[in-house]
Design goal:
The chain is 5% helix and 41% strand. With 419 residues, the protein is mostly beta strands. The chain has a four-stranded antiparallel sheet. Strands 2-3-4-5 form a four-stranded antiparallel sheet, with no helix packed on it. The chain has a four-stranded antiparallel sheet with strand order 6-7-8-9, with no helix packed on it.
Amino acid sequence: MSIGYKAGVTNLCFKSINMKKKLLNAILLASSLSCFGQWTNLNAPTSNTSFFYTYQDIAVSDNGKNIATWCQKIQFSPYQVITEYITSHNNGSSWQEYPAPSLPDLDMFWDGDTLYVQEANNQNQLKRSTNFGQSFTVQNNSYNTNSTILRSANGNWYLNYSSQTYYSNNKGASWALDPNTSLLAPSFNNYVVVPSGRIHTAASNDVAYSDDGGNHWTSSNFPIGFTGFGAGTFISASTSGNLIYLSSSSPDVYLSTDNGVSYQKITGSNLANNVKYLDYIGNDIVAFYANGATYKSIDNGITYTQVTPSGNISSGTGQMKPYPSGLYFAGDKGVYKYNSTVGITEYKNTRTNFSVYPNPCSNNIHVLKQDINANEIKILNQWGDLVIKSLEPSIDISSLPTGLYFVMIGNTTEKIIKE
C-alpha cells in the first residue's frame, strides 16, 4: 500500500501528519528495495494460510492508476480452484477481487477507466467493464482472432485472423476487413508505439513498422539468413529511441538504432537461455528468466547484472509488460513495478538483519535478530503510527486490527500482515 501526501502544506497543525507520511513512504521504499532490488511490491493479495495466489496476466492503464490481473486462487480447505479478476483503481493502494472465467484471457487492456478483455476460451467475445472488473458487458461476440488487438493513435483498432487484418473504428463493437490487408498482415503478438507515432510490431511472420497508424506496413530489415520470427517474440523501445527484438528460436537479441528500419544482432551479450520476457524501461533493458530471476542491462544489451534472484518476485510463472507508466510484473509472488536505475543498485544477495515469523500472523510474532545491536522493537501501522513497542522478541499482536504493519529495529524494517 502506498501513502501519498500533498506537498507545500504550511499549516503547522499538519506537520506531524506529514512527517509520519514521509517516514512511512521512506519505510515502504526501503522495505521493498531491500527485498526486491529495483522492484516495488504493489501489495496485491498474496498467498497466506488459506489461499495460494498465482497471477498470470496483467493490464495497466497509461497513467498507472488502473491495474487489472487474472489470477488463479487455490483454496486449501476445502480444496477449490477459484479464478478472479483482481483489480486496483488507485495505483495499487487497494485491491478488489471479482469472479473471472476459468481460463486466462487472450489479452486485456484499459481504455481510460474501461477494462476490455479478449476471451480465450472459445467464446469469441470481446467484453468490457466500466466498474473496474466487477461486471462485464459483451462488446462483440462474433469475431475470431489469433492476435491481440492493436490500438492505434488514428482511433482504429486492428486485429489479425487467418492472415488478414481487420479494423474497428468503434472500439471493437464491429469489425471490417482492412482494404490494405494485402500489403502486410502482421498478427500483432507484441507491439510498441514510439514518440514519433511510428508503430513497431513483432508478428509471427515478420517485424514491421507503420507510420500512418496501422494502415500500411513496412518490413524491417534483418541480417541475411535470419530465421527468428515466430510466436513468443518481443519488441520494445527505449526512451532514447532504440529498439530491441528477442528472437523466439534462440536467446539472440537484435538492436535497432535507426527507428526500426534495420536490426543487427547484439554480439558479446552475456544473456543466457530461457529468457521469457525482455523489455526496455527508460534506457534499462530488463530480462525475466524462466526460473523467476530478473536481470538488467544499461549498455543496450551487451552485459546484464542480476536484479533479483529466482524465487524473489517469482518462482518462474507470471507475465511482464511495459506501459507508459512503467514496467509491471504479475506472478506467483504478487504484483510488482520496476523502478528506474537512477540511485538504485542491483541485488547484492543481502537482506535485512532480522526476520519476523510467522508472516502472515494473527496472534504472536517472533523476531529473530542477526548482527544487530538495537534492542527496541517498534511496530507501526500503515499510517506510520507507533502501535506497539517492545524489548522482547516475542510480541502479542492479537489486539491489532487486520492489515499491513511494519516492524522496525533501528533503521531496518520488515513488513508483516496481521490476519
